[in-house]
Amino acid sequence: MSPLKGQKMDNLFTMSNRELTRLEAMQRIRDKRLTQKEAAQMLNLSVRQIKRLYQAYKAHGAKGLVSARRGKPSNHRLEAGMEQQVLDLLKEKYEDFGPTLAHEKLTEVHGIGISRESVRKLMVVEGLWKPKRAKKPSAHPLRERRACFGELVQIDGSDHDWFEGHVRKCTLLVYIDDATGQLLELWFVPEETFFAYCIASRHYFERYGKPVAFYSDKHGIFRVNQPRPLGLSSGLTQFGRAMQELDIQIICANTPQAKGRIERANQTLQDRLVKELRLRSISDIDRANAYLPEFRADFNRRFAVVPRSRHDAHRPLLKTQNLDLILTHQKTGTLSKNLTVQYDKTIYQIQSDRPGYALRNAQVTVCENAQGEVTILYKNKPLAYTIYRNPTRQAEVVDTKTLDRHFQTPKPPAPNHPWRPYGRRLNGKPIQEAPPNGAD
Length: 440
Prior knowledge:
Number of strands: 15
Order of helices and strands: EEHHHHHHEEEHEHEHHHEEEEEEHEE
Distance between the termini: 73 Å
CATH class of the largest domain: Alpha Beta
Shape: elongated
């Protein structure tokens, strides 16, 4: 800011650098050294604005070019008491929320008319939000969205502490459309397994139909990662075999950045969904799954985009595609001379009215659903059977992702366990054990 002295010594006012530049232009117009059109080009203003400024200069001199709003409060300032009301709500309910989500709750839940930038500034001043430096752009090439809805659907499982310690960590299965960014399916499961994806996929198929392709990572559910898999003549996983029967292609991304759309969606869900569950006091999987359709609709309303094409690439399920049988764990076996077949350490005895030699060495398919119910198919027709023998279960083979859930830690002894009075001693006297929290 630069002070300018008027005709009288006591008549002082302040002008900005931009106003001083305009004053110089008005003086040159007055002295016929500059046309109004040239001044408009120099100041990047319209000719009409230059005429208005020149009239103010002739009427009031240099003071006519000074903004009349200087020194007055802003028209966009917060109303009296609103700032304190917003701060009270932020500290009471939304202390760990981001500015965008906190602004949504303040406007939609509490009906407070405040801008998102004002919320961000208040949170920064109160130490509730720390501004982040912009990251340097990565060198990953951008991939254009697919044109049609249902042409490519990205799927992934997000393992996270969704209930903030109320129950142990679980997995959220996420299905997101590549063309629109819509969340097509969300489903909480204890762990990322074949049957978990079968349940979530069935919900999705019954709601929208079959997509053209699924885009996933290289998890063992989607892709055989062994160079020479044993016992898999087709080279397909159980999920891959089921999708092949439904005519759905599976494409595996080579890097996490290749499926960045669903990776970013997982980060958003780990922030927004956790807080929505907390606000509704939801702390178990069943109630969370019941709430997910409402959350999914709200998420799509906010963030979904319009695809380049109006064509819906989803296809309806055929009458011959029985999901009850396709979405099962299947294994091919051969019937013995006694018409028995072994599956998962259990021997099944086939019951048939036809002669025994008719089914000897026949190829059958053993199908097991998520509830453990077994169906044995011969030429796509079920066979009656009885369980001949169920041997003792041996050691199970688990992968590293599910190892923690299979690992059983020993439970601590009860407070009244006999060893407690004789366990720890100090100076020859037993130490009185403190009861656990909540126990008498």
